[in-house]
Amino acid sequence: MSIKRILYVLTHEISSDKKELSLLLALSAGQDSTCLAFFIIMYQKLLYSEKQIQVGIIYCQHNWNTDSLNKANYLDSWLTLLKKLKVNVTFYSCIPSNPIATEAESRKWRLNLFNRVAKKYNYNFVLTGHTLNDEVETFIMQQFLRGFVQKEINTPVRNKNYLQPLTWIHRNEILEICSYWQFPLFADSTNKSILLPRSRIRLELFSILKAFYNPQIENSLKQTIQTQKEQYYSSKEHELSIHLFHSNNKIVLNRLKLNKLPLKTQKLLWRQCFETLGVFNIGFYWIEKCLFYSQRKKEFIFYFIKNIQLEGSAKWLILSKNQN
Ligand SMILES: Nc1ncnc2c1ncn2[C@@H]1O[C@H](COP(=O)(O)OP(=O)(O)OP(=O)(O)O)[C@@H](O)[C@H]1O
Predict the structure, then answer these.
(1) Which among 33, 167, 204, 268 is least buried, having the fewest CB atoms inside 10 angstroms?
(2) Ligand 1 in contact with 128 (CB < 6 A)?
(3) What's the 80 CA to ligand 1 centre distance in angstroms?
């Protein structure tokens, strides 16, 4: 993996016409975000004559496992190194006011914190070190562990200013870069605990799939995810044009516009509508029902599971949730 290519991707991801740019990097001390930190610093140094780039590094010390203290010490030495290199970086080390018990809670806490710090100090972008493997593992969790980890895999506080510039690189390639450049790393013991669903997928499921079926399983899945994402974003664009009204318990759609969209897009849109009302992973059967009813020109009312109903008239379709 060439450094040039990574810097090229970074430049594209962080495309901004502004002369001044400020980036907040979420550093966990793991290999991926450490590697990203060094790339950002390189990017800052290389572009210094064209752009003024402010770099902030945020580390959240959630203390939900015993490694956190060691990590904090490790980060101190990392910072000393940055000072030696005369790098202009602002560092934010954050500790929760109350103890956090689980990984899911600490994740929620730190995402909120990233947003707050970015807003307060005017950072244009928040960058995380997610890799191709993280995306693939999340995909598997969404497919097979529905409901159980729904809260963990949904990231409600994210917004478009979140960048994940390493999602096209395999974790092993990052490790190679880190070893080659001898970046300081911290091995988080929780990454090895099969009690966490994500680690179990990585350490057990993928190792079996790789050994017996497809050594490139992550890359193959990544392509599927990419196609899904493209469909999702194109349906998001359509969504804006057919939504007339939209709240947590009611969505009004323009039936005529909806019926002009390709079937695939209509299906995705219905799925998104259910998700807006808090119903995730709606079955194919119900989506087919929506397609069937949206073709009907007569007035109708159809009751779904979970207090959801679909009402239709010649022009409108109203998907709503009964609160009682
Ligand atoms: N405690 C934390 N403080 C700040 N950012 C974090 C923290 N934990 C995770 N992140 C951010 O979220 C990304 C993905 O989180 P994940 O739990 O997969 O990290 P990790 O595997 O422990 O470390 P890394 O991704 O750096 O190898 C990290 O790359 C980092 O950008």
Answers:
(1) 204
(2) yes
(3) 21
